[in-house]
Amino acid sequence: MEKLSSPFGELILKRWPQRKQDVLRAWDAADEYLLEHIAEQKLPEQDSQVLVINDSFGALSCALREYDVTSWSDSKVSHIATAANLVSNDYEAGFTEQSSTVAYLDSTQSPKQTPNLVLIKIPKTMALLEDQLIKLRPQLTEETIIVAAGMIKHLPKSAFQLFEKYVGPVTTSLAKKKARLLFAKVDPALTIPENPYPTSYTVDELKMTLSNHANLFSRDHLDIGARFFLTQFKHLPASEKVVDLACGNGVLGIRYLQMHADAKVQFIDESYMAIASTQDNYSSLINNDTSAAKFITDDGLKQIEDSSVDLVLCNPPFHQQHVIGEQTAMELFSQSKRCLQVGGALWLVANSHLDYQSKLKKLFGNCRVVDSNKKFVVLRVVKR
Ligand SMILES: C[S@@+](CC[C@H](N)C(=O)[O-])C[C@H]1O[C@@H](n2cnc3c(N)ncnc32)[C@H](O)[C@@H]1O
To answer: Would you tell me which of 81, 152, 196, 283 could form a disulfide with 57, CB atoms 3.0–4.6 Å apart?
Structure first.
């Protein structure tokens, strides 16, 4: 079992979703460095409000649980992981996101209070960092202590520039175990430009303009895998109960609804910004009345009943945070099998080099290649 030892005590921390024999740790050297640094500085002070941004699986929030901690993130999976780790370390009795130990704030909201201490894990997407700094800025004072952390290989120069643009002067720590800290001082004289997010792009052949919040997958153009998948939509069955799984900005489910007006689509993604973008796009492209659709921020199909769906559309994720792999996609496929009724189908697009075909055949007992090109393959599996 993996233990994080820090000046704030020992924690048993697991990644989410929990997987048997997971070899990956639920924290990194940047989390350790950050906790050591603030303890050396005798922080947080008593009764401090601590804002923790982009805490992957709750390492920082769980370590600082005795303070008034708010965890601000775009990832519902990170929030679920934090809640689960609080429970497994006996800091909370039950598994609930409405925990009293840590407050959870989704990325589409702005912090409402002025924190004394802000701890930021540098995210993968710089647009998300930019959006976060702009939303945070009105709550910052010259007294606010801001420390950011990241693994050096994931710390682009643009991260430093964003702090300088939206917060003020930045200094850095020495490197330690390939991690580095950034210290930002608030410059009250800075003029803060308007938030450029959400942004939008137009898909000419579909005459669709899609809005995208800062952390959206393929934020400034239609993903080429999705584009290829859409060419095959004419072959999709007319189904009533449809799920756009890992929906991003909702392009697949919205296009399906444009072609099958009687369908009901449940849009699911673990990113709060993805679901917010999907809601905006549904309102502008389908209907202002969103009561016929459902928008669910969650880890896959966890909330969906067994055998309740006719059709699942999916352009699956190929990484979790910085870790590339098939595991999340395979979990989404086996959840799809559980949620499909007999005769229902999962249609997906994938990079051809990922051998999903044989894995899906093993899982469903069948797998048809609908079409392929040099880079992508569209697959259809049926629940029997
Ligand atoms: C490859 S993108 C596809 C987005 C969109 N459907 C498209 O075709 O452009 C994959 C999406 O999976 C989402 N995702 C990753 N892990 C997830 C999970 N466990 N549950 C639900 N969605 C997840 C990501 O947030 C991302 O929006």
So the answer is: 81
